[in-house]
Structures are given as C-alpha cells and as structure tokens.
Design a protein that fits this description.
The complex is a heterodimer. Chain A is built from 11 helices and 14 strands. Chain A is an alpha/beta fold. In chain A, helix 10 links the parallel strand 13 and strand 14. The chains are: A alpha/beta, B alpha/beta.
C-alpha cells in the first residue's frame, strides 16, 4: 500500500461543519478522473462510490491492481463513454483510499484517529465532495450518479445543491435506511469489534489488524448483495475440490470457500475502522427525517432530471424503496423517470455486466446530453 | 404518426403538462414535446417500450396504470391521455376517476365494439370478433372490459363526467359524435376519442 502517496488529492482548506457538531478543515480528499473536461465544462459527471468502493472507478486500481469497481460501466465507448464525458470520483471522507478517515493521522496526537474520528453522515460526505466542483471550476455538472450508498449521495447532493447538476441517477438505493439494512450493518460492526485485535479501534498503533472480524463482516454483507436464485445457480450444493463431504468444518461447499475468499481479499484493501464509520453513515441516512417527513420537500427546488433504477432481485434495496423516491419526485413535480431492471444478480447487479442496465445508463446519458 | 395521435395532439393546447398512460414507444409524447412544447411524462408497463422512450429522451416511468397512478398528486397535469387501453383494466371506472384526479382533462380513446364489422363477425360467424382494431383471439386478448362508443357515452352521462368533445374515427375519416347521430356513429366508427372533464 506504499503507492498511496501517489494518489491524486486536494487539500480542502474550507471549514466543513459536520452533522455531529465537530468541524474539519485542511483535510485531504482523494479523487480520480477519467476522460477530458471539455471547454464549456458541461460534460462532467460526478460518480459516488458505495460502502467499500473508492475513487478508482475504471481501469486498473493502482493500489489493488484489480479492475476498477465500475469498469463495466465507465470507459471509452462504454455506457459512460469517457471519450465524451469527464468522470470524477472521490474517495468519501471516512474512507481509506487517501481521503480523511479514521486511519489518517490526528495532528493533535500524531497517531491515527481510530475511534476518535468524528462520526460522519452521508450529508458530510457530499458536502466534502462538493469542493471538487470548485477545484475543477465546474459551474454545473452534467450528471451525478451512484448505486447503493452512492445513490444516497446522489439524493443528498441534489437536495443540498438543487441547481448544480442537469441530471441525476440514483441506483438501487433508498431515501431512508431500513431497519433490515441497519441490522446487517450492525452485524458487520459487531463482528469487527468482537475481534480481539480491534483494541477499541486502536489496532494500527499496536501494529495489529482485526482481519478476522472484518472478513466475517464482509462475508455477511456479501450474502446480502446476492440473490437466493443467483447463489443457487452459481454454487448450488457443489463441493469445493472434493468428491464427498469431509465431516469437518473445512470449506466443504463452494459457497463457503467463495465467501472465505471474498473475506480474505477484502481485508487487504479495507480498513476496519472505515467500515465502522461508513456503515454508520449509511444507517444515519434518512432524507425523510431531514425534510420533516416529507421527502418531496427535498426536491422542491430542483430542475434536475432524475432517472431511478432498481433491480428485480435486489432485496437489500428493493424496488419498493426506490419507488418511494420516484413518488416523492412526482409529488414535487420534478422531472423523473424510472425502470426496474430484470436481473438475478441481486443488489450487486449495479456493479456487474447486466446489459439491460448498461444500455439504460448509456441511453439516458447520451440522449439527454444535447 | 397515426391519425388517432394527430387528433389527440390537436385536442391539446401548447405549453401544457401531459401524462400519457400506456404511452408505448413514446411516439405521441415525443411529438407533443417537440411540436407543441409540452412537458410530458409517460407511464408504461413494457420494459422494451420504456427503453424506446429513454432513447427518445422522454421522461418515462415503468409502471401500471392501475397500481401506479396514485403517485401523481391531484391536478398535477393539464391532460391525461389513455389511448386504447381502458378496456384492458380490471377496474376501468377507477382508472377514469384517477385520470380525472391527476389531470384537469382526460383524453380517452376506445376501440368501438359496436362497429358494424364487429357486430357482423359475432352475428354471422358466431365467434368472438377478430378485426383490425381487435386483433386477438378470445383466449389471448388483453381486453377485459370491451365497450362501445354508446356505452362510454352513457357512462360519462351517468357518472356526471363532462364530454367536452367526442370524435368518431373510421379509417382516416373523422366526425363529431352528438346525441342525434350517436346510434349511427356507434355503428360506423372503429374508434371513439373523448375529451372529458369532471
């Protein structure tokens, strides 16, 4: 991870008052861009990443050496064509890919913040990223988009800055985090905190790492990103490199082996405390409450053209929750479109090669860019 | 653009807000948007058609008129259009009421089951009519509540719905329907087009 110093970042000097009451300033915000900002500066798209994402949307992530998390969607001639559009993505504050987060050094103690880091909200993340518009001298974005937690940021962005983007695409998300989703996030957090290496969040000072807890958190979360049908089709009861059951607790089944692998690779690239902070921000997300129970008030002032996308097999952010957003937008007279994409790949559909989804994004972005 | 859509388009004032329910591939919406500067929204059940509409740059919501009209606030549109789909709903009366709730006026078109060809078909062949406007067999038709121009005319009268304009379409020929010619028009027209208001 020593190449992290080469990550592009801006230092935001402007003070940001966080929802928790604390303020931050002079903080790093790491970002990456794809494509070229045109002279009129009207082709910029701000993409927001999900819980475990980062700014490396496409191409090869220089830190993990794996393809960017939205490689299917973003690139030359792809659904978001970087020959046409200038795509910006920032690592959220609270993250662990160069932006200010719990693994950053606290100037007061000269040690990592750990759990002394302030609890953040989606609103804080969006307000921090807004500084990128100033940095690139972009008056108005062409689009903001993102899936899952990225979609929440889209909603918050338009609510906060109603005239700063022409279009907005919230994908597979919700305007207010459900009890079920809070429950799953809590499961992940408890798993991390139950790891004896976590040390109340001070693991890095002691050169420890709560890998087991973080891996289990990832495994549990990963199940929620898939669908029952998808799992059954991909794994069924297939055994892992053996002909018969082992009568032990080894990974007999392929699905077990798969989940263990997913857990093990995750701990190499993600910080346990960041996982705690970001899941907390998702849980606190309640745009309804921010607008006193009337979601349509959030979008009253906007002329932004919305397009909302959900997936049939997504049970984490089901179509019904996405439709709540459509209804709120309709109630405020906003310009809104909606489609439910058929896919058996669950919540993860927005990250995968789902042709119908890719086609929809391309179609929407290109026909409205004129 | 087909004649039916031309007539609908003529019924709508420029610079208004229109909801097209069951808007298909968006041909009518696109035309209204481009030619009459109308702020259009579409509701469409077929995913394929939704894609077509996105491709035309239209604001389109995938959904079902019977389930999804509730999301639009009262009188949020100047006009609601329902083209040849009324007969496919479980509860056409509820849909009509919803149209007149979300929009100031509604334009409803119906394939006329009272057309002479339909009548002859049933009378002589003794089978459910299959015609140009009613192309399906009884076992695969989406139509649940077929009606005639006269039925719809009477429905509006009984439900105290104002009939602003009633137009009969036969081939490319259009004519106005009134109390005096209703019986003839009910026999000679393939399609009825109604501008209504509650």
């Amino acid at each position: 991870m020593n190449t992290k110093e080469n990550i592009k970042k801006i230092i935001v000097e402007k003070e940001l008052k966080l929802d928790c009451g604390k303020t931050i300033n002079n903080y790093p915000l790491a970002y990456e861009t794809y494509g070229v900002l045109n002279e009129k500066k009207d082709n910029a798209i701000l993409a927001f990443h999900a819980l475990t994402g980062d700014q490396f949307v496409s191409g090869i992530n220089p830190i993990t050496n794996k393809p960017g998390w939205w490689s299917y969607l973003v690139g030359p001639s792809k659904a978001i064509d970087t020959n046409k559009f200038f795509v910006i993505c920032a690592n959220v504050i609270g993250g662990c890919m160069g932006s200010l987060g719990p693994s950053s050094i606290d100037p007061e103690t000269n040690k990592p913040y750990g759990t002394n880091f302030p609890v953040l909200t989606i609103n804080d993340m969006v307000n921090a990223q807004y500084n990128l518009l100033e940095f690139f001298k972009i008056e108005k974005l062409y689009s903001v988009l993102g899936g899952s937690m990225g979609g929440m940021q889209v909603l918050q962005f338009v609510a906060n800055f109603p005239n700063k983007t022409k279009t907005a695409i919230p994908i597979a998300c919700s305007a207010s985090h459900s009890a079920q989703n809070i429950a799953f996030n809590e499961l992940g957090r408890q798993s991390i905190m139950a790891d004896s290496n976590w040390k109340e969040g001070n693991y890095s000072k002691l050169n420890l790492s709560p890998d087991k807890g973080l891996a289990v958190a990832r495994m549990a979360a990963h199940i929620t990103y898939l669908s029952k049908e998808g799992l059954q089709e991909k794994f069924g009861r297939k055994l892992q490199e053996k002909d018969d059951l082992n009568f032990s607790f080894d990974a007999d089944f392929q699905i077990e082996s798969y989940l263990r692998y997913q857990g093990s690779i995750f701990v190499d690239r993600f910080d346990a405390n960041s996982y705690l902070y970001i899941t907390r921000a998702m849980d606190y997300f309640d745009l309804l409450k921010q607008y006193k129970g009337n979601l349509s008030k959030a979008f009253e002032k906007t002329k932004t053209k919305f397009f909302i996308i959900s997936f049939t097999s997504d049970w984490l952010y089901p179509t019904s929750e996405n439709k709540e957003i459509v209804i709120a937008l309709n109630s405020s007279g906003a310009d809104v479109g909606f489609i439910e994409i058929t896919s058996d790949k669950g919540h993860d559909s927005f990250l995968l090669n789902v042709p119908e989804f890719l086609k929809t994004i391309k179609n929407f972005l290109e026909t409205n860019y004129r | 653009m087909k004649k039916e859509f031309q007539i609908i388009s003529e019924l709508i004032d420029n610079n208004t807000r229109v909801l097209d329910i069951g808007c298909g591939d968006g041909t009518l919406m696109k035309n209204l948007k481009d030619k009459k500067n109308i702020d259009t929204r579409g509701l469409e059940i077929s995913k394929k058609n939704v894609q077509e509409c996105i491709g035309k740059g239209l604001s389109i919501i995938e959904g079902n008129a019977e389930k999804d009209l509730y999301q639009f606030p009262n009188l949020s549109f100047d006009y609601a259009i329902l083209s040849q789909t009324l007969q496919a709903f479980y509860d056409p009366e509820k849909v009509i009421n919803d149209l007149l709730r979300v929009a100031n006026k509604a334009i409803v078109t119906i394939p006329n089951f009272g057309h002479w060809k339909v009548r002859l078909n049933l009378l002589f062949k003794g089978t459910m009519p299959v015609t140009k406007n009613l192309p399906n067999e009884w076992y695969n038709t989406p139509n649940l509540h077929m009606c005639t121009i006269k039925d719809f005319y009477n429905f509006c009268f009984n439900k105290k719905i104002e009939l602003y304009k009633s137009i009969a379409l036969s081939g490319e020929k259009t004519s106005l329907i009134n109390n005096n010619n209703l019986i003839i028009k009910n026999l000679s027209s393939e399609l009825g087009i109604f501008l209504i208001k509650k």
